[in-house]
Amino acid sequence: MKPTDTGPIDILAISKDGKTLLVVELKKGRASDAVVGQILRYMGFVRDELAESEQMVRGVVIALDDDQRLRRALAMVPAIEFYRYEVNFKLVKM
């Protein structure tokens, strides 16, 4: 986690070419539309405090599920993408 003046960023990554900084927000379970404001705050911090003038800042939210409110909010913010994770669990007796 990267601490900021707006809270801790879960993951901060940089592209191989160095042109993009990626803010990743991880959510267990369902993500609500409140995550959009949260990740935008982190992206603003990264843009203002860490990014070079030629670097872009993008965001990714990763959660088990989303809802209609989150989809509508994200539709207006092209710099943020959403990914669902899936968990497959198998118990094997040894």
Describe this structure in words.
The protein is α/β, with parallel strands linked by helices and 94 residues long. It contains two helices and four strands. The protein has helices spanning 34-50, 68-75; strands spanning 11-14, 20-26, 56-63, 80-84. It has a four-stranded mixed β-sheet, covered by helices on one side. Strand 1 and strand 2 form a beta hairpin. The longest helix is centred in the middle third of the chain and has 17 residues, at 34-50. The radius of gyration is 15 Å and the shape is globular. The model has no long low-confidence stretch (mean pLDDT 94).
Could you give a quick summary of the protein structure above?
By secondary structure, this protein is an alpha/beta fold. Helix content is 27%, strand content 26%.
Estimate the global geometry from the Cα principal axes: globular
Strand order of the largest sheet: 1-2-3-4
If you average the pLDDT, what whole number results? 94
- Helical content (DSSP H or I, runs of 4+): 25-40%
Number of strands: 4
Biggest beta sheet summary = 4 strands, mixed
Order of helices and strands: EEHEHE
The span between the termini is 36 Å
